[in-house]
Amino acid sequence: MTSTTSARRAEPLSRASRAGFRCGECGWTTSKWVGRCGECQAWGSVLEDAGPGGGAPRTATVAPTRALARPIAEIDVEASRARPTGVDELDRVLGGGLVPGAVVLLAGEPGVGKSTLLLDVASRAARAGREGGDGTAATGRRVLYITGEESAGQVRLRAERIGALDPHLLLAAETDLGTVLGHVEQVDPDLLVVDSVQTIASAAVDGAAGGVSQVREVAGALIAVAKERDMPVVLVGHVTKDGSVAGPRTLEHLVDVVCQFEGERHSRLRLLRATKNRYGPTDEVGCFDLSEAGITGLTDPSGLFVSNALHHVPGTCVTVTLEGRRPLATEVQALVAPSMLANPRRTTSGIDASRLAMVLAVLQRRVGARLADQDVYVSTVGGARVVEPSADLSLALATASSRENVALPRGMVAVGEVGLAGEIRAVTGTTRRLAEAARLGFVRAVVPAGSLDGGAAPAGMEILEVGDLAEAVRVCGVAGDRHA
């Protein structure tokens, strides 16, 4: 009786130790299946997992070490220095270039230009390997480009169009992980590009390519090869509808660098941001111009966001936003027209609609601008998207200028956040913003009072400090009848 009872009690424990369940999003484990992850609260992401961590804990055996531990000051770091890729904007985001053995995940929406960018990077890396520092020929750097989404002929046509043909750039169209590793063993490349990680599948794992288990297996194998060979690897990743990287959340933890490639479909501007970087900063932004001839880096992208209108018209105001550490001059245009509708239109392009509604309410309540019976259309130049509160003042001044049909003074920029009480609040990086505006030829700036904090204004620039929105519209000459 006692032995039977003990066997029955031991049966559930042994069953629980044999089977485990893991969340495909965050890696949380549990001994039984649940519909919702207890860590990230994702629904339907907990699947059976018989791999490490799914069963009972095991005692690790002692293994011989391959090298003795050394004092940290004696570790050689020269082999781990970042090497430039030949694309300055990419090197800016990565922190100097690609580190040997680093794994970079580049994610972005379909059609944004990920493959075009990496094909250009691959060709420049292969070309740079043959050019010595003194102009003499150097040993060629082999670059292996694995495409799983397109045929080799399609990639070849794109490379010809953007001028990325190079004899040291090797191309293979494969979707099997074992074959990809075989190419790496045969070619022994100095750089590996995989487009994309969701299209590669391993025969040792069940499931279709792109599944949680497949992506984890493929990424783990490629990371192991990168660390073993000191070979930088760049992986292309898909994104979900909300813009996050597709696949298990652990994928972002495994790689060394995670970059987001962003851009509007109808705009040529593309922005590259690093959301995770073990070797450099995460507040740098790279700007690219995507055209039929290829993709090029923009060292001075402000010209894309400022119109070159021949006529000085009402309803336009320039502001300077910060993308990471980089200041960008952006022009905000507003058009105010009488409305024939009971509910006037509020249309935006590149501006947050809720932000516009707040600024219009402050203009009407604190300044006295009559906008309740007016249609208001607001847009940015060049397809730029402005989400920073520092653009509130330029948005308000452009709207007031269009409402009164009075153009703002020439060569003026406006930087500041508008509060609900009508006050103008200071923003970060004012000195950097004004320096960029002065470089572009602007001669006066409207800024919040006290925002310079004793710092020197750019030479030749007139600084107009304002405390509230009513004062701002007065000094700019666009005040209505109430504050004329």
TrEMBL record:
<keyword id="KW-0479">Metal-binding</keyword>
<dbReference type="InterPro" id="IPR014721">
    <property type="entry name" value="Ribsml_uS5_D2-typ_fold_subgr"/>
</dbReference>
<keyword id="KW-0067">ATP-binding</keyword>
<feature type="region of interest" description="Lon-protease-like">
    <location>
        <begin position="375"/>
        <end position="484"/>
    </location>
</feature>
<dbReference type="InterPro" id="IPR003593">
    <property type="entry name" value="AAA+_ATPase"/>
</dbReference>
<feature type="domain" description="RecA family profile 1">
    <location>
        <begin position="79"/>
        <end position="239"/>
    </location>
</feature>
<feature type="binding site">
    <location>
        <begin position="108"/>
        <end position="115"/>
    </location>
    <ligand>
        <name>ATP</name>
    </ligand>
</feature>
<dbReference type="InterPro" id="IPR027417">
    <property type="entry name" value="P-loop_NTPase"/>
</dbReference>
<dbReference type="Pfam" id="PF13481">
    <property type="entry name" value="AAA_25"/>
</dbReference>
<keyword id="KW-0238">DNA-binding</keyword>
<keyword id="KW-0862">Zinc</keyword>
<dbReference type="InterPro" id="IPR004504">
    <property type="entry name" value="DNA_repair_RadA"/>
</dbReference>
<dbReference type="InterPro" id="IPR020588">
    <property type="entry name" value="RecA_ATP-bd"/>
</dbReference>
<keyword id="KW-0378">Hydrolase</keyword>
<dbReference type="InterPro" id="IPR041166">
    <property type="entry name" value="Rubredoxin_2"/>
</dbReference>
<keyword id="KW-0863">Zinc-finger</keyword>
<dbReference type="InterPro" id="IPR020568">
    <property type="entry name" value="Ribosomal_Su5_D2-typ_SF"/>
</dbReference>
<comment type="similarity">
    <text>Belongs to the RecA family. RadA subfamily.</text>
</comment>
<dbReference type="Pfam" id="PF18073">
    <property type="entry name" value="Zn_ribbon_LapB"/>
</dbReference>
<keyword id="KW-0234">DNA repair</keyword>
<comment type="function">
    <text>DNA-dependent ATPase involved in processing of recombination intermediates, plays a role in repairing DNA breaks. Stimulates the branch migration of RecA-mediated strand transfer reactions, allowing the 3' invading strand to extend heteroduplex DNA faster. Binds ssDNA in the presence of ADP but not other nucleotides, has ATPase activity that is stimulated by ssDNA and various branched DNA structures, but inhibited by SSB. Does not have RecA's homology-searching function.</text>
</comment>
<protein>
    <recommendedName>
        <fullName>DNA repair protein RadA</fullName>
    </recommendedName>
</protein>
<keyword id="KW-0227">DNA damage</keyword>
<feature type="short sequence motif" description="RadA KNRFG motif">
    <location>
        <begin position="276"/>
        <end position="280"/>
    </location>
</feature>
<comment type="function">
    <text>Plays a role in repairing double-strand DNA breaks, probably involving stabilizing or processing branched DNA or blocked replication forks.</text>
</comment>
<keyword id="KW-0547">Nucleotide-binding</keyword>
<keyword id="KW-0346">Stress response</keyword>
